Each structure stands twice: as structure tokens, then as C-alpha cells.
């Protein structure tokens, strides 16, 4: 497999965690979202992913984009360890939390939106994340065990950790979100979350390396 990734992309990080949890070795092709006006806009990359976004994964003779579509494919073809519970209610809760983050928070504060916000980009990102986290904190009070849904790592957790990383980058006050903070801390102790961390990628700038 070949993963087209950017070290600080939260969508790429989700997929890196899934690959690590499932023990899938892969090669990384870095796509720098800032350099050369954004390498994702090159004709070569656009031919592979018309949305001009990372991640993209070449695997089993196909190329997939969109982080959750990639994770679902990995789940279908390499089911151990499970990232979706078998219980229908828990599975729905996992998907709900994942969608809350990948649809309701992350797109509002991603690079393409922030570029349009100019000087207000930090304030905008803080407001979008805080609004989303207020709702997420309430949901997690009903679903969480050690992790987002019960005591097993799931797709929801793969979405949570990169989003908390974004929140900390934008200096969001995490005080009002004790459940999110607790789960994030527990997940960051797991090896798959450590090796996939933005500070430990091939394209991580020297000053940001762990």
C-alpha cells in the first residue's frame, strides 16, 4: 500500500492510526499542503484524487480517497482488530461520533476554509471547534467507557485524537471538555496513536519532530 499523506493533516492521521492498529505496513508519499502553492493541486495528484485532498491510499489495485471510506475498506478487508463494534447500537454510536467530527467540525476549520478567513482564521477555528466540542462532550457522556464508545478502540477514536490535536494547535480552552480530554489522553498512550502522530512522520519538519 502507498499512502499519500501530510504530517499535520488530521484526515491523514485517522488513516495512519487505522493502518497501525491493523498492522498494515505501507509506504508514505508526502504531499505538502503548503509548499509550491500546495502540492495537492498538481496535475499529477489531481489525476489520482480529483478532490485534491489528502489522504489517498493505493491498495489492492485501487486508489481510495476520503478517510472514512478508506477506514471502512480496511475494516471490510482486514477485520482484525475490529474498529466497528458488532452490536448495532454501539456501531451506530461509533458512526455518529465519527460523523460529528468529520462532517460537523473538521471541514469548518480545515486549511481551505481558513485561507478564506484571513486574519480571523484563529478565532474562526476556535469557535467552530468549541461549538462542535460542546455537543460532542454531551454525546460522549452517554457512550464513553475508557474510549469514545465503551472500552474498545473504534473508528470514533481515530477521529477524536486528530481533532483534539487541531484544537490544541488553535489554542482552544479544553477545560470545558473533561470527557474528551480524558479519552484523548488514554488513546495517546497506545502505540498505534504514537507511531502515527504528526511529530513522527517522514515529512515532519525537524523543529516539530518528537
Automatic annotation (TrEMBL):
Q: What is its EC number?
A: 2.5.1.18, 5.2.1.2
The similarity comment for this entry is: Belongs to the GST superfamily. Zeta family.
Q: In which pathway does it act?
A: Amino-acid degradation; L-phenylalanine degradation; acetoacetate and fumarate from L-phenylalanine: step 5/6
Q: From the Swiss-Prot or TrEMBL record, give the protein name.
A: Maleylacetoacetate isomerase
According to its UniProt record, where is this protein mainly located? Answer: cytoplasm
GST C-terminal domain: residues covered: 87-206
Q: Which reaction does it catalyse?
A: RX + glutathione = an S-substituted glutathione + a halide anion + H(+); 4-maleylacetoacetate = 4-fumarylacetoacetate
Domain GST N-terminal, chain residue ranges per copy: 1-82
Q: Which UniProt keywords apply?
A: Cytoplasm, Isomerase, Phenylalanine catabolism, Transferase, Tyrosine catabolism
**Entry's Gene Ontology cellular component terms:** mitochondrion
Entry's localization field: Cytoplasm
Amino acid at each position: 500500500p502507498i499512502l499519500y499523506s501530510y504530517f499535520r493533516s488530521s484526515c491523514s492521521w485517522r488513516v495512519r492510526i487505522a493502518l497501525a492498529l491493523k498492522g498494515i505496513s505501507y509506504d508514505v508519499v508526502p504531499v505538502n499542503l503548503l509548499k509550491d502553492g500546495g502540492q495537492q493541486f498538481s496535475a499529477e495528484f489531481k489525476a489520482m484524487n480529483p478532490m485534491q485532498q489528502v489522504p489517498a491510499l493505493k491498495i489492492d489495485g485501487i486508489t481510495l480517497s476520503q478517510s472514512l471510506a478508506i477506514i471502512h475498506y480496511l475494516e471490510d478487508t482486514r477485520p482484525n482488530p475490529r474498529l466497528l463494534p458488532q452490536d448495532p447500537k454501539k456501531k451506530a454510536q461509533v458512526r455518529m461520533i465519527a460523523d460529528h467530527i468529520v462532517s460537523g467540525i473538521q471541514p469548518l476549520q480545515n486549511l481551505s476554509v481558513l485561507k478564506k478567513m484571513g486574519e480571523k482564521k484563529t478565532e474562526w477555528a476556535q469557535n467552530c471547534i468549541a461549538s462542535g466540542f460542546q455537543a460532542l462532550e454531551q454525546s460522549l457522556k452517554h457512550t464513553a467507557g475508557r474510549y469514545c464508545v465503551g472500552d474498545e478502540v473504534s473508528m470514533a477514536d481515530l477521529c477524536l485524537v486528530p481533532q483534539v490535536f487541531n484544537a490544541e494547535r488553535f489554542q482552544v480552552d479544553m477545560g470545558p471538555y473533561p470527557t474528551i480530554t480524558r479519552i484523548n489522553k488514554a488513546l495517546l498512550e497506545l502505540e498505534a496513536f504514537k507511531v502515527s502522530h504528526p511529530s513522527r512522520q517522514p515529512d515532519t519538519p525537524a523543529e516539530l519532530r518528537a
